[in-house]
Amino acid sequence: MRIARFAAAGADPAYGIVELAADGGEHPDTVAAISGDPLAGPVSFTGMRHRLDEVRLLAPVIPRSKIVAVARNYAEHAAELGDEVDERPLLFLKPNTSVIGPDEPIVKPVETHELHHEGELAVVIGRICRKVPVERVDEVVLGFTCANDVTARDIQRAESQWTRAKGFDTFCPLGPWIAAHIDLDGAGRLGIRTRVDGELRQDGSTADMIHPIARLVSYISEFTTLLPGDVVLTGTPAGVGPMGPGQRVSVEIESIGTLTNPVIDAADDGGFAGDGAAAR
């Protein structure tokens, strides 16, 4: 099952179940609207169905409290940046205001000259939980999606804390939907690739994680309560590199889908003028 957030013409954002023709369905690629919030309780089909190419896909989840990200969870990526592999997961937080959805622009801030892509598998938490044993992590995971842990690499090198380098608005694209049909074992052996303007930059597998998904979620839950809709970014394979205004970056994860976003310059972004402009 693939759970999406979408906006159809003239309608408020809604949740739906994506039905792909490739899965042997009766219809072309569609999204069947559901009532309710899959993170909050029971849902039901409304009977309304839309062609997937006629709706706008939104970020499949807006974390209600936090995005917990894991650094240096692939040995080759740690090596390419000259970093040591950590015995325990190295964690940092990204604000929920950094989240955008498919096809929304990543804005290159004026403060950075080294904007980098980092394609990652994201875990979406489905239940409130704390101190979850490794063997029970599957009970608290709703599903998985694609993520791009956008990074201002020069700021990251200059500052000991990574909040600013990783936390600008638009620095956490998520999508295209939540794959709830994949179990933990399956999620731990998926191909993950990042392309910039079609050029392959990253080509790895989640099987190469140093700390597997269940270990990460369990470890994080030891110090903080995880809430429905929280997101865990599991680290990036080797091959991170630059992207800039005018380019398009795509993160593709096997059995999930592809997340694509254009990159624009901050000068092309409306920004916030303190005059009541709507937040993202």
TrEMBL record:
- Spell out the SUPFAM superfamilies in the cross-references: FAH
Where does this protein come from, organism-wise?
A: Propionibacterium acidifaciens F0233
Q: Does the keyword Metal-binding apply?
A: yes
A family per Pfam: FAA_hydrolase
Which keywords appear in this protein's UniProt record, sorted alphabetically? Metal-binding
Q: What is this protein called?
A: FAH family protein
InterPro entries tied to this protein: Fumarylacetoacetase-like_C, Fumarylacetoacetase_C_sf, Rv2993c-like_N
BP term (GO), one: carboxylic acid metabolic process
Q: Which residues form the Rv2993c-like N-terminal domain?
A: 1-60
- Superkingdom is Bacteria
Q: Give the Fumarylacetoacetase-like C-terminal domain ranges.
A: 66-263
GO MF assignments? acetylpyruvate hydrolase activity; isomerase activity; metal ion binding
Q: Reply yes or no: does the keyword Transport apply.
A: no
